[in-house]
Amino acid sequence: MAKKHSINAGGEEWRGMDATAGYDAARWLGDIRRAQRAIPRIRQRDFQLKLCDRHGKPLAGQTIAIEQKRSTFPWGDQLWHLDRLVRLGRQEHDDAVAWQKVFAGLFNACTALHYWTERPRNDGPKSEEWQGYPKYDALQWCVDWGNAEGLLVKGHPLFWSIPKAVPEWLKRYDYATQLRFLEVRIRTITARFRGKIRLYDIVNEPLWEPAFRNLPRRNWPHLEKISALAAMIAQVQRWAREEDPDATYLVNDYGIMLGDHAVRAVARDGTKVTADFQLKRYIQLLQALQERSAAPDAVGLQSHTAGWGHHDRQVATYEAIGEATGLPVHVTEFWAQTGHLREKGLPQDEIDARQAEYVINYITCAFGCPWVEGFFFWGMMKDLIRFNASGGWETTPVYDALQRKLRGEWMTRATAVTDRTGTVKLRGFHGEYALRLMQGRRVIRGGSRFSVQPGRGTQRVVITV
Q1: 221 falls within a domain
Q2: Residue 179 phi/psi, 5° resolution?
Q3: How confident is the model at residue 6 (pLDDT cuts 50, 70, 90)?
Q4: In this structure, is residue 133 part of a structural domain?
Q5: DSSP string, 74-132
Q6: How far is it, in rounded angstroms, from Cα 429 to Cα 69?
């Protein structure tokens, strides 16, 4: 059984699942290639552009260039580091600006953090560690920054029923009063950031924790009754939806994988808890929420635990959840940690190469699964940009590999010539595009935008230029 790490306030037990063995990509080559073949089918669409002038006359024989500016599929990382820089007043320093530019130059989404509190004592983004002193300034800055950069902003977490994420002062009150404080928190965040935070981890890690009512009796792993978890999530989600009905809400959890029967922990009643066992409970929880007409909009799966490899189980887990519930899956917290490679004494360039290989294979398998609709890293920026003692910085080979995929191979750029009806037929990745009229290599007119939406059949777009 994995070693249980003792953390006074709870919530870091997943670190005991991080043992990582060697990674041999050849073992998973079949899974990787299947995903590669699936990507054009599920992430691209045929589209037809018809160009006309302002009088409706087709622009025949016109050379055009199209460039995809944004993917419909969100790729992001969390903003813990940026939030801290803002709280220290350092967001305009050179290293902070470099971090922001590198982030926005790669990702199209971000996770803005707003823990009620976060313990043990650390520099985490806390919104009300001290009663009566709510703090949202740093969160506001990060949200505004993300929106200004054109990023889809996600909020994490609205609620986490665990001692380390519930303020100490709240324990002075009875449960009914605690529930009112929680309601105010949920409504405050979702009302204040309505239209600005468009995606939330509404409840974090419920499968391993007690329902809010039973928090004083927590004994990890706490295998709460599914009915109690469903009631708690439904209530939190109701408050959130009443304030922001247009946001997307996820339930987010970890330690879940089809076919992984390794014992990760033993519950108080003697139940041996495995990742496969928790997958079954997750599906039961989601189905219970569907029965209450309180299903989340998507299912969150953390993936910075349980080592490298097993791309077959990775994809099978997405499929199991999707097929059982009909809900899309988001990878919410992925970080390919490299401690096991450092312990072997490998040089940094070899560590970078191995990490880049694994990261690219992992995101390829996710992107190649039709049930997956979002991918968020968790602290991966630490491995994408490095600073030196003199204040300089450089991107890493892992960053370069991601840049080639996310901004290169998985984005569409093309040049074509319209036929006599002013029409061109193309195929491209789902997302937002810019269209330019060309004369040779020179742009003679720009400013036109269109989008390619997921769907079947050929999408037809008429553009007046």
Answers
A1: yes
A2: -65, -35
A3: very low
A4: yes
A5: -EEEE-HHHHHHHHTT-TTSHHHHHHHHHHHHH-SEEEEE-BS--TTT-S--BS-SSTT
A6: 11
Number of other CB atoms surrounding residue 68 within 10 Å? 21
Contacts of 296 (CB under 8 A, 6+ apart): 202, 233, 237, 249, 250, 251, 286, 289, 327
- H/E segment holding residue 280: helix 275-291
For 202, the 3-state DSSP assignment is strand
Share of the chain above pLDDT 70, in %: 95
Three-state secondary structure readout of 345-404: CCCHHHHHHHHHHHHHHHHHHHHCCCCEEEEEECCHHHHCEEECCCCCEEECHHHHHHHH
Q: Give the chain's domain count.
A: 1
Answer whether residue 335 shows pLDDT above 60: yes
Whether the CB-CB separation of 122 and 80 falls below 8 Å is answered with no
Candidates 44, 14, 96; CA nearest to 381 is 96
Domain CATH for 109:
3.20.20.80
Q: Average pLDDT, stretch 172-199?
A: 98
Give start and end residues of each alpha helix (H) in 292-347.
311-325, 339-343
Q: What is the mean pLDDT of the chain?
A: 94
Write down the pLDDT at residue 408.
98
Using CA atoms, how far residue 4 sits from 7, 142, 164, 210, 267, in Å, is: 9, 34, 17, 18, 12
Q: Does any domain span residue 117?
A: yes
CA distances from 292 to 120, 230, 234, 463 (A): 36, 8, 8, 45
pTM: 0.95
Domain that holds residue 115: 13-25+74-402
β-strand partners of 332: none
DSSP state of 225: -
Q: How far apart, in Å, do the first and last CA atoms of the chain sit?
A: 65
d(CA 365, CA 369): 7
> Is a pLDDT exceeding 70 seen at residue 21?
no
Residue identified by tokens 């191995």 is: 354
What integer pLDDT is reported at residue 2 of this predicted model?
Answer: 39
The reported pLDDT for the residue numbered 20 is: 58
3-class SS at 195? coil
| Residue whose tokens read 């990760």 | 264
Residue 410 covered by a domain = no
pLDDT at 4 over 50: no
Least confident of 87-101, 218-232, 274-288, 336-350: 336-350
Contact in structure between 158 and 240 (CB atoms under 8 Å): yes
DSSP3 helix / strand / coil % (the chain, rounded to 5): 40, 25, 35
